[in-house]
Amino acid sequence: MGWKQISGRLGLTKADSQQWMTDYQQTGDQVLLAKLFTLHADALYFFLLRQSNAELAADISQQSWLKLLEQRDQFQGGCSFKTWLFTLARNALLDEFRQQQRWGLTEITEITETTLFPATDANPAEQQLAAQQQQQQLDLAIQQLPLLQQEALLLQLEGFSLAEIALIANSNAETVKSRLRHARTMLASLMEEKP
Description:
- The chain is an all-alpha fold.
- The chain has 2 domains: about 15-100, Rna Polymerase Sigma Factor, Chain: A; about 125-190, Arc Repressor Mutant, subunit A, CATH 1.10.10.
- It contains 9 helices and no strands.
- Helix 3 (about 30-50) runs antiparallel to helix 4 (about 55-70), helix 7 (about 145-155) packs across helix 9 (about 175-195) and helix 8 (about 160-170) packs across helix 9 (about 175-195).
- The longest helix has 22 residues, at about 80-100.
- The two termini are about 25 Å apart.
- The model is unreliable at about 1-10 and about 105-120 (pLDDT under 50).
- One of its GO terms (biological process) is DNA-templated transcription initiation.
- It comes from Rheinheimera riviphila.
- One of its GO terms (molecular function) is DNA binding.
- Belongs to the sigma-70 factor family. ECF subfamily.
- It holds the Pfam family Sigma70_r4_2.
């Protein structure tokens, strides 16, 4: 079950985040910050994880929350709180990538391969295994996309609108549309190549 379904069942909306952040700016109430963290921390971490590794995702996620603490007055409310938070995280991730390039480091992605046995009957367990394999193939294909296409696609999968993606990526909507179109085309090609 995805975050959209969970938050929908809890009755949480974007307006709740906006109000909590506005109230947090005014009062500094840590309970409000905890609510924001509970609502958005997992989505932020998994967005970063799909573009990096677990250690870097955790580090950038933590940096983003610390930046929120330090710069809470900079939230203007011109976009959703989640859009603002993801923008902080994206900028921190790009800064880290630039720093790694400056020092000659390369991103190392560890891929763990599991041994899978061929299916003999079409039972629910085998169907679930097949679905997991397909998801792994999709995840690997997404990792092969160019960074900006990958970012746009992951933000769209996270539920951001085209305008919000453009804001987070510091780009215009037409460029984002183009990145998404190219990402889908490349994904389709990569998925066709898989056995």
